[in-house]
Design goal:
Shape: globular
CATH topology of one domain: Rossmann fold
Largest sheet: 7 strands, parallel
Number of strands: 12
CATH superfamily of one domain: NAD(P)-binding Rossmann-like Domain
Strand order of the largest sheet: 3-2-1-4-5-6-10
CATH architecture of one domain: 3-Layer(aba) Sandwich
Radius of gyration: 20 Å
Distance between the termini: 50 Å
Strand content: 15-25%
């Protein structure tokens, strides 16, 4: 069995669904079910004995210790995190508590569990920490992409909290010998993504005829990674990655935000035409967020050379699948865009009028 934390979130849920589609090895899923955790994303596993869900906090050492003792997982994969930069600007404390303090408690509990293992179980155990390219800071337009040796230079409360957790993971390996692995991924997109993030927000707003808010000039550049490609990379790192090492995971798809928005509009116009006209008419440039990093880019060469991983999806194929999924899963989006979601959107965009 493996333990997945944050398995009801966007990437965690996709990972579990993919894992159980490809493996019979059971998954113990520990998730606090904050606003972005949604068991509806895992509805297809209802009644599947290979998926064991426990609601709880990674910082609850007593709970995590009991789960480890009862289920004896061979690996812990830590997806649990507060992950939205805008929310970290409005309320950074939650990010420190979950991403830093929570990860510390999880590491300490995992270390005690690992120390009690023996023989082959001890040798095989892994702690895999899922992180982000945002820990590296911002690139200039002609700078080389981030590599695994790029110094951390986080610029938001979110990225600072993820950088801190990454340092704790590294220290747990180098000081205590805990067999850790770290992945730093670029911007994910795909099914089950909470619609505060750029792509699902644009899809849902466009379908409802609402403005499509684009920060600043829209020329901030990100590397885009389809979520199932990311899941495949994590499986490869878990299976064959060298302990104590970091692997950057990217989609080789650098694009400015405004181009992403235009692509989404064009796909929606093709798949579900709006009689009022092209969706691009809804694009509204709004004041930028504080400290907005200009460009991220990932060099994913190491994971390809050492583990043979590369993305299966181009941005063209992945974004088409994503738009199609949201069009076909209106019930899921209706459920997650609750009153709490509407309150957040009002807060975040109240002072950002076009």
């Amino acid at each position: 069995m493996i333990l997945v934390t944050g398995g009801a979130g966007f990437i965690g849920a996709n990972f579990i669904l993919d894992w159980l589609r490809l493996h019979d090895e059971p998954v113990l899923n520990l998730d606090k079910l904050t606003y972005a955790g949604n068991l509806a994303s895992l509805a297809g596993l209802q009644g599947d004995g290979r998926h064991v869900f426990v609601r709880g906090d990674i910082g609850d050492r007593g709970l995590v210790a009991r789960l480890l003792a009862e289920y004896r997982p061979r690996a812990i994969l830590n997806f649990a995190a507060e992950s939205h930069v805008d929310r970290s600007i409005h309320g950074p404390e939650d990010f420190i508590q979950t991403n830093v303090v929570g990860t510390f408690h999880l590491l300490e509990t995992a270390r005690a569990y690992w120390a009690g293992l023996s023989g082959g179980e001890r040798d095989a155990f892994r702690f895999l920490h899922v992180s982000t390219d945002e820990v590296y800071g911002s690139l200039g337009p002609h700078d080389a992409p981030f590599t695994e040796t790029t110094p951390y230079a986080p610029n938001s409360p979110y990225s600072a909290s993820k950088a801190a957790s990454g340092h704790l993971v590294r220290a747990s390996h180098h000081t205590y010998g805990l067999p850790t692995l770290t992945t730093n991924c670029s911007n994910n997109y795909g099914p089950f993504q909470f619609p505060e993030k750029l792509i699902p927000l644009m899809i849902l707003n466009a379908l409802q005829g609402k403005p499509l808010p684009v920060y600043g000039d829209g020329l901030n550049v990100r590397d885009w990674l389809y979520v199932t490609d990311h899941c495949a990379a994590i499986r490869a790192v878990l299976a064959c990655g060298r302990t104590g090492e970091t692997y950057n995971v990217g989609g080789w798809n650098e694009m400015p935000n405004i181009e992403i928005v235009h692509t989404v509009c064009a796909l929606l116009d093709d798949m579900r035409p709006d009689p009022r006209g092209p969706r691009a008419r809804l694009i509204a440039h709004v004041p930028d967020r504080p400290g907005h990093d200009r460009r991220y880019a990932i060099d994913a060469g190491r994971i390809h050379r050492e583990l043979g991983w590369k993305p299966a999806e181009t941005f063209g194929s992945g974004i088409r699948k994503t738009v199609k999924w949201y069009l076909e899963h209106a019930a899921w989006t209706d459920q997650v865009t609750s009153g709490g979601y509407r309150e957040w959107m009002s807060l975040n965009y109240a002072e950002r009028q076009a």
